[in-house]
Amino acid sequence: MSRKPVHLAVYDTFADWETGHTTAWLARVGYEIRTVGPSTAPVTSIGGLRVQPGLPLSALRPEDSSLLILPGADLWDTSDDLAPFARAARAFLDAGVPVGAICGATAGIAREGLLDDRAHTSAAPMYLAASGYQGGARYVEADAVTDGDLITAGPTEPVAFAREIFGRLGDVFEGEKLDAWYRLFHDSDPAAYETLNA
Question: Where is the DJ-1/PfpI domain positioned along the sequence (predicted)?
Fold first, then answer.
């Protein structure tokens, strides 16, 4: 099956642990993972990983992508430098292409107005409330939430974030296998291994 690439946003201070489960398993089933940065200049993650983006944000088009993933980063809370990535998320959603936002990226897309009318989650309600957004009534106390093409999660839930993305894309794991994958990697349930590998 031919698939469009998955685009992973990378920028200085991005939280490198938040998207590892997602990108690793998407790559294992055949998705090309392409990094997209503010430019093609190298960026450095919170963990000190130096990453050379494969594509500048200015060249990113929703029609060329299966999914845009926005990881958290200190920059979401300390400047407006990442606002262009939130605007890109709007373009993706307007085009019907899924977006996954975790941790600080949820505040960025909240400021862009993308959570005002969609069910969502994040680190905590008060964290998003500080953005001044209008979507507080749509906040859900859950590990991760999917509303149409938008997937959100808090900083402690990279496995739940991956589960929701896999469920939305529909061609990674499905049904019983998706549940087993989650139980194995989130709950360390050894019984799930047999189901996953059946």
Answer: 6-165
